[in-house]
């Protein structure tokens, strides 16, 4: 079986806590939670769905040379998914899925509001 899959993630959202440095083996990573918002339209009411994503930026990334990231920044992240396992305090094997960023830009392209999305003409 060949390994011809694509592992690519594109996210635009808000950093919801101050980024922090973590040492992972021989590499330092800047880590933060990115919250994305999706509006689900329905006949009765619009439903806002928030999703939190764990983002890691390697210390050697060009994005860290161009920007300083902080809480409440709006960013656009490109990267790949990485799932790791660990044993928790109760000796249960757990999994975490994270986005390892290879490109991060501050001030993502404007994210439309629900009202703006309703008026988009795809025709």
TrEMBL record:
This is Single-strand DNA-binding protein. It comes from Mucilaginibacter terrae. Signal peptide: none annotated. One of its GO terms (molecular function) is DNA binding. It comes from the Bacteria. Keywords: DNA-binding. It holds the Pfam family SSB. PROSITE patterns: SSB.
